[in-house]
């Protein structure tokens, strides 16, 4: 019986404790609305940002290249566009990494007959494509007439081509005068030549690609230049054959690999788009890696902002909590009350944040979507992303609040009563200080390691250094605030008079509060500086190297590229000292990074060595560029040669754009690799391993004066060829920026930087709202309203200057290491961009301190 009574009493006690906690939570929410409003805003913004990134990442994972060219095909047989590399890391099992090939890997032509003999196959069509330039300079794609069934195209007038000089044109070309019986000028290989239009065809679903021009199969095979291989094989199934049965039948009939060792894939359904857009999935992988890195930073920033805001809100109530503890509230009741408050505020905030995550995520998705890789957004995805963000934020808010309140709720009642009347502690605890110092040492150590490394390893080390230093600033905030007060306090007192004296004394008396105010500013300044400066530094160094390497004064370009013999025609023009055709491609380098296998892609230039010295100067450090001939030589950038440990005469193993492995002998090492790329190959080494062996441009060096007129006459037979003055971008390995780069800058700097600025405003507002009693007391003891307002402006200036200075210093440490390692220069950021950042931080500080603080000083003295 006594046991039952004790159990009943325990149940009643717990029920009473829960009612007391609920009562305290309700009263606190009512009494501290301004403080909880700041927490509400920060929590809602956190949920919106995390939900938006979850939506974009989910959309990327679901993305598939669209099916346009092969809409009429039931299946497509293509070579595997992935390459793998296996290695054994230090003290671990072997690991394999994969990468997508930038150029098309082709199939043996014998695969066409084997596919046609498979059960359930009605027709197997060899599908090759050739880039064309029309007489007016616009681009088109050349295909064989039998492959028209794969889209499908149907004749609307005329007939199929029967001879090498006849073509069927896309209906989209009819406005340009391409009608049955007319003549069109087409350039594939060599100069443009006339073809007779034998028919006009229209596609049921041509998509957004270039219009097609159809040749006879024999003529198209000759123009493609690879008679033993095909780009892909389109399959039309017999009636009644399912896609799965067709795939199994083709799998049984076809070999596992081509003669060159590439795997053979049978693509059905939405996977058919992979055969059209070769690098779409590779771009998706790169984008996922970049967004994943940014998302990791987002989580760190979100947790830091959330913990700072919630901790500050709870800390402002430390006296109240101590008093409740002194009058008999149990630690469990206080923890429950604080947890309930934060959970209710966070629960309401994530509803608003989840709703805001949808438009923000859709905006970010629209910035990243492209024609080769449209990003889907099914109806369930925004809801799932918003719910995931809400669960994460609510789940993180309660533990943060309990940690913030643990020092007060765990005190004995007598000690709590003393703590309620004690001033704010000015120094962090030993554990917090020790952790902060360790992070400082680790951050500086990572920066030093970045200086000793290069490439991706240096970037990873620099990023780790920045993260460590930002967290260290958050932990060591009171110490940093004390140092900032000592440095800035004296000029503040001299320049501000009475208001300056009040501002300096207030800052010196509340180091913990000032540290909490500086931390979000350091976060936004450091993050934005790292995001903007790293890219700007590399771009500036690459621009300078490309400009120093340029020796050509003219360049020839065309929309669809230029055939190989165009450079030879330019060399024969009067007044031309040298002319170099530039073929662009990419190679894959297999190597180890901290023991892990890596497959990195590098863009390369294919050049003609005999004419190179007159048009491009790579800054040769050793070797001879005239030896860059044949199919087995390579020139390597100096930093890359040092990392690989190779010199003149050594061999480097590379995978060319179509996956072919080759050992290349190093004949030269050059300095200007940022501008011209890490590797430079002979043009003939790349010709058979690119999707289309067309020069991106022809660099021309005149003998005396300008040879523009003679060069124009030389390229007149090549449709769309244009001659203009050469610039550094013509020899640069990559363009200064792309739409994807701009989108990532908008997301990384605009979205996350905006969130961090909002965190600055909410944190400063929360701190300022907690000081309203202090402002009223100043007014009551005789301070004028203008003096209090001026004090707030001076404090805002102190916080902003300290935040900008420390944030810049935190960013400068890893950025200097990265810039010295990667570019051999100091970090560079355009002054205008830094000025915009400084102005945004100052405006956020004014919005968070002056505006809410001004109302706190409105007191009528009696």
Number of structural domains:
4
Distance between the termini: 66 Å
Low-confidence stretches: 857-862
How large is the count of helical segments?
A: 24
Percent strand: 15-25%
Rg, Cα atoms, Å = 34 Å
Number of strands: 25
Average predicted local confidence, pLDDT? 80
Question: What general outline do the C-alpha atoms trace?
Answer: elongated
Structural class, by secondary structure, is alpha+beta
Q: Give the biggest sheet.
A: 10 strands, mixed
Percentage of helical residues?
40-55%
Subcellular location: Cell membrane
Membrane topology: Multi-pass membrane protein
Main location: membrane
Protein name: FtsX-like permease family protein
Which terms would index this structure?
862 residues, disordered C terminus, alpha+beta, 25 strands, ten-stranded mixed sheet, 18% strand, elongated, 4 domains
Question: How would you describe this protein?
Answer:
It is a single chain. With 862 residues, this protein is an alpha+beta fold. It has 4 domains: 1-66 and 295-422, no CATH class; 86-282, no CATH class; 477-547 and 737-862, no CATH class; 551-726, no CATH class. It is built from 24 helices and 25 strands. The strands form 5 sheets. Strands 16, 17, 18, 19, 20, 21, 22, 23, 24 and 25 form a 10-stranded mixed sheet that branches. A 6-stranded mixed beta barrel has the order 6-7-12-9-11-10. A 4-stranded antiparallel sheet has the order 5-14-1-15, covered by helices on one side. Strand 6 (130-134) and strand 7 form a beta hairpin. The longest helix is centred in the middle third of the chain and has 39 residues, at 511-549. The protein is elongated and about 100 Å long. The relative contact order is 0.12. InterPro entries: ABC3_permease_C, Membrane_comp_ABC_pdt. The chain crosses the membrane at residues 35-62, 287-307, 345-367, 379-397, 431-452, 458-481, 514-534, 743-770, 791-820, 832-854.
